[in-house]
Specification:
Structural class: mainly beta
Distance between the termini: 5 Å
Helix content: under 10%
Number of strands: 20
Shape: globular
């Protein structure tokens, strides 16, 4: 069961509330990851959202998810300095790069991270939310241009748990891994603050969301198929090195 979160600190799940049955353990020593190439190129659809819960086990450079097409690639990662970085590198330069000042060093905490992008507007502003609160302090803050084609949401190689070159593997646990194609959602579509404990951020049932063509929802409840997409889109990921023993109830 996934714990609820109080500003990054683990709290007990509340009786009668929505509970997440499973997370997935990723071991960098085993090069665990999931991989998929989308069937549709929606890189020109400038709205998308990533949402996932993550608990780190070690403090190394770790890429949570990536998309790569030759020399063009995007990533969501923890840096060597333990900051969160979201980037898109195309044609030899960063067309998007945001690095938080905030550090993510608590290996006992579950973090809920939501990354919502809409660069169809005149002044694009990719938003990052941590445990329901928007992150506003960045050491690097370079945005997409309006209607700029991006690497994300394209029919290119995508991974969960590492960078494409087979490096920067996640060492920790992930749960409720969601990608929304065509919408830039705020965190209240994906989690909520507890009414009785207003600082406690907790998961909600996301199964009723509209996921879009390339959207997927990995709930890790099928131990024999940890890459199974339960969004209804059948955007299943190939499992690499993960086995049923990596299904966790943490």
């Amino acid at each position: 069961m996934l714990p609820t979160i109080a500003t990054g600190n683990v709290a007990s799940a509340l009786a009668g509330e929505y509970e997440v049955a499973n997370s997935c353990r990723f071991d960098d020593g085993s090069s665990d990851n999931l991989s998929k190439t989308f069937g549709t190129n929606n890189g020109g659809v400038y709205k998308w959202t990533y949402s996932f819960w993550i608990k780190r086990s070690t403090l190394s450079e770790q890429t949570i998810t990536s998309a790569k097409d030759g020399s063009d690639f995007g990533g969501i990662k923890f840096t060597t300095s333990h900051q969160l970085e979201v980037y898109d590198y195309r044609s030899g330069s960063y067309i998007l790069q945001k690095i938080t000042n905030r550090l993510f060093r608590d290996v006992s905490a579950w973090y809920h991270i939501v990354i919502a992008n809409d660069n169809s507007v005149s002044s694009p502003d990719l938003k990052i939310y941590i445990n329901g609160v928007e992150e506003t302090s960045f050491s690097t803050d370079n945005e997409y241009s309006q209607n700029e084609t991006n690497t994300w949401n394209s029919n290119v190689a995508n991974t969960v748990g590492c960078f494409q070159a087979g490096s920067q593997f996640v060492d920790g646990y992930m749960a409720e891994f969601v990608f929304i194609d065509g919408q830039a959602l705020d965190p209240t579509s994906l989690g909520e603050f507890d009414e009785d404990s207003p600082t406690t951020w907790k998961p909600i049932d996301v199964s009723g969301l509209t996921f879009g063509t390339n959207g997927f929802y990995l709930d890790f409840e099928n131990a024999s198929s940890l890459g199974a997409d339960v969004s209804g889109n059948s955007n299943n990921f190939t499992v690499n090195n993960l086995t049923s023993v990596d299904q966790s109830t943490d």
